[in-house]
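Q: I have 388 residues here and want to know how they pack in 3D. Can you give me a structure?
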Amino acid sequence: MWWWEIIKTLKVQLKPNNKQSTNLWGCAGTGRWAYNFALTKIQAHYQETGKFLNDGDLRRQLTQLKQTDENYKWLYKYSNNITKQAIKDACDAYRRFFKGTSKFPRFKSKKRNKPSFYQDGLKIRFNSRYCWIEKVGKIKLAEFDRIPFESGSKYANPRVTFDGLHWWISVGIELGDLTLQKEASEAIGIDVGIKDLAITSNHQVFGNINKTERVRRLQKKLKRLQRQTSRKYEDTKKEGGENCYKKTCNIIKLENTIKSVHRRLTNIRLNYIHQITTSLVKAKPEHIVMEDLNIQGMMKNRHLAKAIQEQCLYEFRRQIEYKCTWYGSRLILADRWFPSSRMCSNCGNIATELKLSDRTYICKKCEVIIDRDFNASINLRNYGKLVA
């Protein structure tokens, strides 16, 4: 018997009217300004004194500026929690840099960074159809009854974001103490790749969704729209001068259509991965074994980078990790240098001359003939038995 507390994140699209959309943009701009304000103060204080300025001192400085300086009165139009959390995020980013866990924090840009802001979990409210955001008002939700709104519901780290097309709200829901009765089931090994997304040691094969007609049709549409947009940019360049581009209304419409196609492709891939990972983990195997692949290194191969990116291999592993926590299974990551593809699952012989183009594994020692990916999944399952 296992029990633990789980926080599940839910993300729902918002449908604001024009006035609410303007207020949301103002909130996102306030959060970006507060982050840059904090980063500027932290860097200047560190250069002068050699000491770190914590978020409590920065919040007190900002409160004094709002009360004494007329240039900061506009901050009263927006929720105080937006600036508080933005300052805290900047301080956390600076601390992570000194710990060596991240790069030096960069200032947020209106064009480069995704617009987002924080809301207080105690002040935000929901019902079946609407969401109440402080200083913005009641906004309609695109999905009804998705977020629980019973009395006593706790919302962790609510964030409002804009993805280029729509506004979204994400909240963490405390599910309480989750108790699961673990059922004995055979362990499985999973080999991920480009030809097929995943091959398991119990003969399950999950193909590459990017090879289906639906995805290829969307990719063809995307290329056509991108060429059309490029031609329109060239036309505006000829009219305005050699290095002058003008973004017309038709170009903006085309770019929004391109964003919609990109979102559609992303949703298809994520939905496919969710279906696969849920079906694998819901079987509650004793443990699941996967390779600890160096995705960042694999992306440096310019011939395979696009195919690896479209397969979303890291997202596949991420979903397996947290769903194993939900259903009480154990995830084992095989060593990065474990020869799962080169080792014979029957006798243990290692084929040093195996190429990436060889899709069938033929052992020269025991003469077994087996699919290369299925052979790797069996080796991963056996690896898990040794480690466990």
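Q: Anything worth noting?
A: The longest helix spans residues 249-282. The longest strand covers residues 2-15.
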